[in-house]
Amino acid sequence: MLMEVGVVLSGALALVLFLLFWSTYKEYSDIRRYRQNISTSANWSVWQEKDFESWRNQLPCMEGREVSLFVVLGSGGHTAEMIQILQAFGRHGLDSFCVHGKVTYIVASSDPHSMVRARCLHEKNGVLASYSYQFLVIPRSRYVGQSYFSSIFSTSYSLVVSWWKIIVGTEAPDILLCNGPGTCVPIVLITFVRNVVHRLLQKRRTRIVFIESVARVHSLSLSGRILYPLAHRFLVQWPELRDKYPRVEYIGLCL
Amino acid sequence: MSEELRFGRVFVTVGSTQFDQLIFAVHQQSFLETLHSLGVQELRIQYGKGRFFPLEEDGGKLKVESFRYKPSIVEDINWADLVISHGGAGSILESLRAKKKLIIVVNEKLMHNHQMELAEAMVRNGYAFLASTDSLVETLKNADFRELKPLPEPNVFPVVTVLLQEVSFTE
Does the keyword Transferase apply (chain B) (predicted)? Predict the structure, then answer.
């Protein structure tokens, strides 16, 4: 009897593991194929306002649909770039299209300045005033000058808290938008794992959009290199990077 | 240096870095005299983490003021006609977006830092001039600032389109 239960349990475990493995592989290869197709077809250097307008007018109406965005605010320069991108999105993307929605900002606990800047977007005259917003505060994984040994613990602590806050605390958003420093790596990994599970459960999956900083001209940042295989869209602002990496989209200077 | 292009105000910034060689260089009498000969009346210096150098004389005929940090230097960039920057991404983009003439001074200590990538790209494309702390005076005297090209206007439509495509994406 006991042995039969054992056989059934280990069989079930093997099946779950196999499904997860298969789903991970599918997710990864879908992203790869999607990016391959897009980077060969997209030519953003000639994409101007009038192209955008006529493209947007053909989009199906999404009235009543709540758009949900996750935005990782790095710090300093990364936050500044992200705020500008959100302003552009609010100014040009919102009229008559995804008008309602919510933005969840993921910020490091040591970074109140980013929260102030994000709040400004949602004030009465801000470009995202019609969107509600919330903050997910993540403990910082490594302080400047912290030793590597102790940063192992603080990084795992940060990972566990992020995991808890994102998986348990939130629904899967439509988009995870990130541009940045190390903070966004665990967030993307967690989102990728959630996508793998949601693929099996047939639930909504998150699209991951990574925008490399304007300051990177010749080579991707470390977080960029780590997240290169995991993002659905990978945008760069310098032609040198397009020539070097096959599955990026070159969008020119956007700020 | 052309007759018609004259600078009234110059802003020197080192961001949040320590770059005492630059701060020292802009306190030299030869630098101040060169500025004066170019028509500069006011000089503002943001010296960041570095040491504060009290000005020995009164800066000749220039009005000089220094400060360590401000929450935002956008105001100072808008105030200036010429910006002399340490090459940080923020100050480069803000200066060029505000259509100011820009000289980037390389900090040799950070030479191979990726922070310099953007500075090099801007110089290579002819949007800014490059100088070292030693050649700053020379650059000011000889550079023809009319040669500098304006940075192309940013195009936000690709990134907005990508976001909308992903929002409306259904499999």
Answer: yes
